Amino acid sequence: MLEFTEYTKFLIALIAIVNPIGIIPIYISLTAQYDSAQKALIARLVVISATLILLIAAFFGEIILQFFGISINSFRVGGGILLLLMAISMLNDTHKNLQQNKTMVEQSGESIAIVPLAMPLLAGPGAISTVIINAYKGNGIEHYLLISLDIFILGLLLWIILKLVPWIARHMSTVGIHISTRISGLILAAIAVEFIANGLKGLFPGLI
Question: Number of helices and strands (H, E) in the chain?
Fold first, then answer.
């Protein structure tokens, strides 16, 4: 089990990576043709799917790494680079990326609640990488319970935000949403650098 502050940092990192505020514009666009009951069902499916994906990553991610022979330090570097690319994307071209994701959904026959809202927009590679890396840091039932609790808190936050989308849409401008996305991108970039630095220290201890 880690120090309590580590689990707090993990939760903050997850919120920054998942960026629930940033998904609001595409969520509103994709659900515009549905009534209130259908929107409520979509919101529940999004939250349940994203939460389950991250829980599976927490409990089985390390096993998957071992199966493919990938060291955790290599995964830290790779995950950090991925997060850095996501951060740059969030900082520079949010609107364009949202439009590309919307086009991808329109061309697919999958449920919008699962693809792309739950994955990859929410529980995407960046979030999954973060969960696996933080789950690897400790062991014991208390550690995994606290990791799971953070994921459930994130799921609760997602549910609240999706339930409040009609109110948020009326009171928050597009500029406000983009500013929130860019702040999350800045936090994410700092987290990515830390991931890469820690991974490089593990791979090349002689450099430090």
Answer: 9, 0
| pTM for the whole structure | 0.72
What whole-number distance in Å separates Cα of residue 189 and Cα of residue 204? 22
Domain spans in the chain, listed from the N-terminal domain onward: 25-200
Q: How far apart are CA 109 and CA 99, in angstroms?
A: 17
Return d(Cα 107, Cα 82) in angstroms, integer.
25
Other residues' Cβ atoms within 10 Å of the Cβ of residue 52: 14
Distance of CA 166 to the CA centre of its chain: 22
Token look-up 């919120």 returns: 15
Helix (H, G, I), strand (E, B) or coil at 29: helix
> How many CB atoms lie under 10 A from the CB of residue 16?
23
Tokens linked to 76? 């830290």
Question: Which tens digit of pLDDT belongs to each residue from 31-58?
Answer: 777 778 888 888 899 999 999 999 999 9
Give residue 181's Cα distance to chain centre.
13
Contacts for 136 with CB less than 8 Å, ≥ 6 apart? 61, 62, 72
Question: Hunting for tokens 């994307």 — which residue is that?
Answer: 89
Best CA proximity match to 202, nearest among 33, 72, 16: 72
